[in-house]
Amino acid sequence: MGVSGPYQVQCVELFPQGLGAIGDVGRCHELGGSPENRGQARDKTTGLPLWTVEVVDFDPATRSESRTFRVTIAAAVRPVLPDPLPGTPVRPVILEGLTVAMYVTRFAKLGYSLRATGLSPVLGDSKRAA
After folding, report:
1. What SS3 class is residue 129?
2. Which of 20, 23, 74, 117 could potentially form a cystine with 90 if both were Cys, beta carbons 3.0 to 4.6 Å apart?
3. Can you tell me the distance from the alpha carbon of 27 to that of 49, in angstroms, rounded to the nearest whole number?
4. β-strands 19-27, 91-96: how paired?
5. Confidence of residue 47 (pLDDT cuts 50, 70, 90)
């Protein structure tokens, strides 16, 4: 039996302690060619432009080397981040349309990539917002 993906998952299930965007939403660039001439990458299935944002997992039990990572977002327009928490650069978010795809790294370890269709601010209890 083959296992295929990506798998759909609710953000609150994958990140029960919450998630925060750090930095800004940027374009995913096409691979190859010179950096000046590369266009924006597009999703192979939907044709939508791809965006990327760095996020941090709020779970204190998460290993520090895997606490921050990038999420790719397929959306027609650049996603807008909510306002940051006062005095910090962190913007609590919920990833919408979240999927997880697993792969084997070049070091024969299991890796995964996260994709979303959008993001929204956390409003009150994140479990209700999701």
Report:
1. helix
2. 20
3. 8
4. antiparallel
5. very high
Strands 99-104 and 91-96: unpaired
Q: What is the average pLDDT score of the chain? A: 87
Q: Is the pLDDT confidence value at 40 over 70?
A: yes
Tokens 């998630």 locate to 19
Per-residue pLDDT tens digits for 108-123: 888 889 999 999 999 8
In terms of residues, how long is the chain?
130
Say whether pLDDT at 79 is over 70.
yes
H or E segment at 20?
strand 19-27
Supply the DSSP string of 58-76, one letter for each residue.
--TTS-GGGSEEEEEEE-S
CA distance 77 to 121: 17
**75 HSE (CA, 13 A, CB side):** 23
Distances (CA, A) of 123 to 40, 52, 94, 106: 31, 22, 9, 40
In 35-126, the DSSP E strands lie at: 50-57, 68-74, 91-96, 99-104, 110-116, 118-121
